[in-house]
Amino acid sequence: MTLLLRLMLREEYRMHTSYTSRHMFLAFPLLVFLLSFATGATAPNYLAVTPLQDMLFVLHVSVFLYGVSVGAFGFLGRQYQERATGYRNYLVTQPSLLPMSFKRTFLGMYVRDAIFYLILILVPMVAGLLLSIPLSGFRWTSVLFLFAAALISFLAGMSLSFFMSTLYVRSPPAFAALSVVVVGLFLGIGLGRVLPASVILPGLAVQLAVPPLAPVGGATLVNVAAGLALNLALIGGAVALVSDQYEPRTTSARNELPTWDARLSRLRRYRTLLAKELLDLKRSGTPVKMFFSFVTPLIFLSFTVWFVRYGLNLPIGFNTVFYAAMVGFFGISLYNWLNNVDSMDYMSTLPLSVPQVIRVKLLAYLILTLGISAAFVVAISWMNGDTRLLWLALPVMAVTGLYSVVMTAYLTGLRTNSFLFDPGVLFAFSAMSMLPDIGLAILSFTIDASPAFAVTGIALTLGVLSLATLILYRGIDRKWARAAFGE
Amino acid sequence: MAAIEVSGLTKFYGSKPALRDVRLAVEPGEFFGLFGPNGAGKTTLIKILTGQLAPTGGAARVLGVDVVADPMAVKERVGIVPEVESPPSYLTSYEYLYFVSRVRRVPDAEARITGWLDFFDLADVRRTICKDLSKGTRQKLMLAAAFLHEPKLLFLDEPFINLDPIYQRRVKDYLIEYVDGGGTVLMCSHLLEIAEKLCDRVGILNNGLLIAEGGLADVRGAEKDLETAFLKLVGDRR
User: Fold this and answer.
1) Is the complex ipTM higher than 0.95?
2) Average pLDDT, stretch B115-130?
3) HSE on the CB side for A93, CA within 13 Å?
4) Which of A128, A344, A455, B67 would give a disulfide with A33, using CB separation of 3.0 to 4.6 Å?
């Protein structure tokens, strides 16, 4: 197991560095360190208006959700086997060839990801906070307690996600049933306040039982033990669910491509590629994953808004326009999914270019998201009794959505997931997405106080974003014309 | 005009040379075999000649088209069978050929697709999605996809891999007929016996250098067969 783990860690590191370069990849934890240092150094300012307990709550929810996104590799069991003939192959496929077990290999993947992301993100984060002590006045013991508690939150997210994803592979109905229970629990805590959040976030429970919020005592030990036990139970369950044999399947399908191709005839040279893209999505089951990755941040956003309003009692006027701007930006994760449906190696043998395929992905994105996004904005405006702003919110959603995805496509091409680990790309991406997002959010808050100013500002921002979208869209050709397909 | 003209072609992966000053010409209607040990640079050369990879230096023209200046025009004119058989996972066998026919704007596509499905006895898997096909069947599909538009030039990287003897024979016969009809083939393979029966001329790459090139008899020299000559040229010391 030690050898397997060592090789898996090496493999993960080499895979990431192969996408960018060693220097660029290693700059990522440095970026986290600097951000964390800046957050620590400015802590006295924001802690004067926001209780520490609330800040820690937000931190733990974020770390937990990050863990959830990392641990979903259980989905990949069959996929890894089926992709074993691609140009890239991974150690996780080896149990089908060597006397190794899939259960053990998946456990190795869990431990690998836990170590890898611990070193990549949590350690630099804590190092930044430790270095900021002379400015923040934090106690170093508190920072270390924070590290331990955040680690438990991260592992809890990973373990839950690992368990759920392996359950999905074994039994989609059982997965659906458990999802309802988990979502219900979170909604019960978030909206109904039936239970304190620390009941389902073990890391938060530990955090609330250590300095500076409480002295170390019996409660600390109980919470740590409970957190570890929950993690172990979820990991154990996930490993038990991993199948050691993948039965080859033979899936028959109606030959639908010609029909879909004919239906899309108005799109001329993109019609066949788009028809193929949509068929891929339908047959791969990706829309389910896409739906969750789109809806999860929307739920998180709703929860954060609720928390700011009622938890922090901050009188910020969140309205439909604010939601519309956020929804537009959340669509980025869907573009990433579109690039992960299947290997694109075979395209290199055909007269196709990377920019052509990027454009088809953008079309698919628009078809998939515009309806859902608009429905969400309409629903939230109706729930908040704020439909009066829909006339402004819907264009905001459409323009930000289009801008975000074109900007992401321009920066990352067909390898979104990989390029976002390149600090140069990540920095450009953050600046290009956050600045207009924050601008629109601030303007949306001023709608009631100064409608003319807000509407003019929003209209101008949308104009600039539309122009930027056009420039970036045209730039895709220049930037990606010589890029190769495949990994 | 030569079907393939290569002069001073070099390719470096970082600081590691994959091809060094390769010069080569393949005439129309020739069956050219490219051999070499693993990692000699054969696949790199095919990828450069088919516009999939940019060279570090030198020049190459395929059917009169500069592969660096217009790689898309090259891909439009040639058929390519890649080293790894990787048709799109979620299309059926029929749909993949339909997709290729649409991308390549193949006239009379339906008849040609049916013809190639019949040629490889793929009628039973017409509606099976590619990820569930066996390796051999995937390879047949990749071959059918490369032959579908009846190009003047074929680049075949290990075309016989995973094919059983029945289909190896069928593909061999087709390729002989194709070359007799004026088509040109550049093929990489480790199956020297098959290559010896098919090729008019051969080249041997070793460590990125084209160490031998010429007619079969010239390269074989005094050796009894191509395999012995090959082992001697690339320096197997055992």
Assistant:
1) no
2) 95
3) 13
4) A128
